[in-house]
Amino acid sequence: MVNIPFQIRPAVDDDRLPLALLFAEIAGERDGIATEPPVDIEARAASWTLDGTLVAVAGTEIVGSLHIDSSPFGFGEIGMAVGREWRGRGVGSALLPEAIELARERGLHKLSLGVFAHNRAAIALYRKFGFAEEGRRIKHYRRASGELWDSIEMGLLL
Ligand SMILES: CC(C)(COP(=O)(O)OP(=O)(O)OC[C@H]1O[C@@H](n2cnc3c(N)ncnc32)[C@H](O)[C@@H]1OP(=O)(O)O)[C@@H](O)C(=O)NCCC(=O)NCCS
Known about the structure:
Order of helices and strands: EHHEEEHEHEE
CATH topology: Aminopeptidase
Bound molecules: coenzyme A
Structural class: alpha+beta
CATH superfamily: Gcn5-related N-acetyltransferase (GNAT)
């Protein structure tokens, strides 16, 4: 495994396509995020909300991203993903504090998210940064396979 450095920065317009490609790749794993294939990459790129999106970049490659969807009610909903070959190398741990900082700057009082109950890496990452488990949604997500997956709601008061 090569130890290439990466940096975190806000997303810019040129990131749309790589963001959509990374998203589609991870959707194809059918494991960590809710979306499953097919992903319309061009539509996803065009509609990506750059405001509130942070990217992790290694060289010219986007290796991870995190988006905060700010609600009018003071909380922000997080979605994040790191490319498979970059996992376990601290990318998520670099994105999350930057997101917490951004959320504070924007005056949000809370960050929240839903995570599949089997997603041990994600749950460990969120706990590491102080997120608490707030509840479990039973058989909430119907997958393309027909399986019904539980999700855990997690939140962090800022
Ligand atoms: C969840 C995800 C974002 C974590 O990102 P990452 O860059 O791999 O995370 P890090 O390397 O910073 O690891 C963060 C912590 O997670 C835990 N962790 C990482 N990989 C793990 C694994 N395979 N099993 C259990 N815990 C793990 C560790 O506690 C680690 O902290 P530590 O290194 O201080 O011990 C990444 O696995 C991912 O994108 N998965 C697919 C998409 C997804 O599940 N998104 C989240 C949807 S809610």
